[in-house]
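Moderator note: this is an archived Q&A kept for reference. The question asked for a predicted structure of one protein chain; the sequence and the answer are reproduced below.
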Amino acid sequence: MSNVVTIVGNRQRISYTAHAVAVVNATLVRGGADVEVMHGADLNLAFPGDPVSSDAKRVEETVAAADAVILATPEYHGTYSAFLKLVIESLGYPSALQGKPVAMLGVAGGRLGATKSLEQLRNTCAHTGALVLPQAVSIAHAKDAFDAEGVCIDGGVHASLEGLAESLLDFLHTFVQPRHVLENMIAAGLDVPWSPKRS
């Protein structure tokens, strides 16, 4: 079973970002993944240079142990949220994102969506050494995509969010899980497919 961490980069408990993540998480669970949500409303993170908080240690350890990460952000003033940047800065050096598959989604109120935020977030994640998946979801006119209960009522948006989760699961099943199997075989001293036969 794949272990996926989704991070809601919003300090508000109820938000369009959290609503979008809920659709992704439901799809991941249906696909057999074990999902852990880390919501900005639950995290107390210190700025770089200040003493490291217990939440920061927990975030770093959780991300390091995960098979993959989904980063979700609202778009604020043309970029991703300052809180999500603080999450990334709390992941240690080298970053816990290094070598980790990362999928991204952004939520915006305007007609252009969160494309600027996702472009900048992609660059930041690539700098940490993360394996950023090419597909990202940018939601425009967020207030029209969800009803008052947080249910996604836009069929296109819903399909895109499901597709993000499915693409991540496909990547894990195709590339990450076989690697883990081989690493475990090597650690156990077993023959791997390309190893010479033992005499």
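Archived answer notes: The longest helix spans residues 155-187.
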